[in-house]
Amino acid sequence: MAKRIASFSLLGVNIRIDASWVLLALLIAWSLAAGVFPELYGGLPQSTYWVMAAATVVGVAVSIILHELGHTLVARAFGLPIKSITLFVFGGVAEMEGEPKAPVAELLMALAGPLVSVALGLAFFYLGGVAEPAAPTEYHAVLHYLGVLNLTLAIFNMAPAFPLDGGRVLRAIVWLVTKDALKATRIAARSGEVIAIILMAAGFLSALGGAMGHGLWWIVLGWFILSMASAHRKEAEARQMLSGMRVGDFMTTTPVSAPADMSIEDFVQTVLARHPHDLVPVLGDGRVIGAAGLREAKQTPRSDWPATPLSAVMTPIDHLPVAEPDLAIEAALDRMQRACASRLIVAVEGRLAGVLTLKDLTSHLQFRQALAR
Question: How confident is the model over 329-346, as a mean pLDDT?
Fold first, then answer.
C-alpha cells in the first residue's frame, strides 16, 4: 500500500485511507456519472449524475468498512487484536496481529465479512423498495446500486481464493478435517493461485476483445491475489520449518552496539559507516537502554551532531521489540511483524545478549530449503 492520506477511529479500530483508494473512488465516480447512471436513468442533469456518483462512492466506502468491521469484531471475540482497517485500491483489509490459532475462529472470522455484506445488500434493496414511488429517481438508483454491489462483494469474496474470505473458509474447513494447519494453508493458497491465474487469463482475453479497461483490472486483481496467496503459503511453510526453534538458535551473539554517551557524529562516522544497520543497540551502565540508526541521527541538525549524545535521540527500549534467547521463534516473528521491524534486540535481565535479524532467518530458511531438495 502506497501512502496513508487520512485516518480516524471507529469502535476502537484505526481506519486508514490509502492514497490508492482515492484513485479507485475517482474511477468509480467517473464510470457511474459518465456511463452507468446516464444509461440506466436518462434525462437527468449531468450535475445530478455526479451527485449520485458521489453518494454511491461514500456508500461503497462505508460498506467496505462495515464488512471489515465484521471480521474485526469476531476476531476480538477470539482474542485476536486488529491493528487497523485500510481502504486501498482493491477494497479493504483488516490487519491482524497474528493468525487464528483454531479453525473455528478462522471460519467464523472469514464468514463474518460476507454476512455483513449480504445484510447490507438486503437492507439497501429494502430501503429502495419501501420508499415512496414519488421519491426521486436518484434515491432509488443509488440504493439499488449499493444493494447490487454489496451482494456482488459477498459473492466474489466467497471465491475459494486465499486470502479472500472464501479462501479462508476453505482453509478452516480443511484444517478442521485434517488437523493440519500447514496443509490447509497450502491447499487454500494453491486454490487462490489457480483462481488468480484464471482471472488474469480472462482479463487478457477481455483486453484482446476490446474491453481494455476491464481486462487490465482483472489482470491486476489476479496478480494481487496470486502474490498474496504465494506469500501466505511461503510464510506458513517457513513457520513450519522454524517450529520448535528458539531465538537463541539464530541470533547474532556479538552484535554491534554503541555507548549512550557517544556523540551522534562519532556514532555515524565510526559505527554506522562500518555497520549500516537500521537500529544499533545503545548501552548505558552495561544495560540496553535503547537503539538508534541513521533515521534517529537525522532528527538532529548536522551541526549539533558533535555535541549531542546518542541518549538524546535514541528510541527508548520500552518502544522496541525485545526478546529473550529462549523465546519461540514464531513468537519473535510476531513481535517483529507487529513492530514492522527487521531487527529484534535480545536481552537477559536488561543486558544485551544478541540481535535477531530477518536476514539471518532468511539465510537459514534458504539453507534448509536447499538441503531438502
Answer: 81
In angstroms, the CA 106 to CA 102 distance is 7
C-alpha 142/C-alpha 28 separation (Å) is 13
Reported in sequence order, the residue ranges of the chain that DSSP labels E, i.e. its strands, are 4-10, 13-18, 82-88, 91-96, 258-259, 280-284, 287-292, 315-316, 322-323, 343-348, 351-357
Of 139-143, 207-211, 311-315, the range with the highest mean pLDDT is 311-315
Please give the Cα distance from 71 to 91 (Å, whole number): 14
Q: What integer pLDDT is reported at residue 2 of this predicted model? A: 47
Q: In what order do the strands lie in the sheet with 258-259?
A: 258-259, 280-284, 287-292, 315-316
**Domains of the chain, first to last:** 4-242 (no CATH), 247-372 (3.10.580.10)
Question: Would the pLDDT of 328 be above 70?
Answer: yes
Mean pLDDT of 82-99: 78
The CA distances from residue 57 to 75, 123, 264, in Å, are: 27, 17, 50
With a CB cutoff of 8 Å and minimum separation 6, the contacts of 17 are 4, 5, 6, 7, 86, 87
The residues, any chain, with a CB within 8 Å of residue 183's CB and separated by 6 or more, are 174
Q: ∠ at Cα 262 (258, 268), nearest 5°?
A: 75
pLDDT in tens, 137-169: 778 888 988 999 999 999 989 999 888 899 999
Helix axes 46-77, 19-31, angle to 10 degrees: 140
Q: How many helices (H) and strands (E) does the chain have?
A: 12, 11
Q: Cell numbers 473512488 correspond to what residue?
A: 25
Burial of 149 (0-12, 13-18, 19+ CB in 10 A): buried
